[in-house]
Write a structure and sequence with these properties.
Layout lengths: L1 H9 L4 H13 L3 H14 L4 H13 L5 H17 L5 H13 L3 H14 L5 H12 L18
Helix pairs in contact: 1-2, 2-3, 3-4, 4-5, 4-6, 5-6, 6-7, 7-8
Length: 153
């Protein structure tokens, strides 16, 4: 990870570097740093679906979530869903997570059902687990310490 941090300081306007380093931080449970890097990627490229989606995901699912994060997560996830014409399983998964975090479980269930239908079979288990949470009126949260990268969009 040190090499990416060095690269990030040299090329701060590279959205892909911010995204990759943010992903590494997310996988290791450094949610605060991941949130900062994903926010930076979004600031660099607000029109990129992946930048909006990645930031929305962490804002909606991090264990250090705050109310204003949920509102922003829904806005960003809706932006990404609109840009992807509601046809991306990963983006719909994020939209469902954001809506569930905001307490809008009926819409979260609808979005997640579509995500489950669109996702490849190999990834369906994690999507289905989140759908079951929403049906129980529970939001999805990343673990305090990451277990399995397959649960992360």
């Amino acid at each position: 990870m040190d090499h990416l941090q060095i690269l990030l300081t040299q090329d701060i306007e590279d959205v892909d570097v911010c995204t990759r380093l943010g992903d590494l931080c997310l996988q290791t449970g450094n949610y605060k740093q991941a949130m900062q890097l994903r926010n930076q990627a979004y600031q660099i490229a607000p029109d990129r679906v992946d930048a909006a989606n990645n930031l929305a995901w962490i804002l909606a699912t991090t264990p250090i979530i705050e109310d204003q994060d949920v509102i922003r997560a829904v806005q960003l996830a809706e932006q990404a869903a609109d840009a992807s014409e509601h046809e991306s399983a990963g983006v719909l998964d994020t939209l469902a997570a954001a809506r569930a975090a905001a307490g809008d479980f009926p819409r979260a269930i609808k979005d997640q059902e579509k995500a489950v239908a669109l996702v490849p079979q190999s990834q369906r288990k994690a999507f289905q687990r989140r759908l079951e949470l929403y049906r129980k009126q529970q939001p999805f949260r990343l673990p305090q310490k990451p277990r399995d990268a397959s649960d992360q969009s």
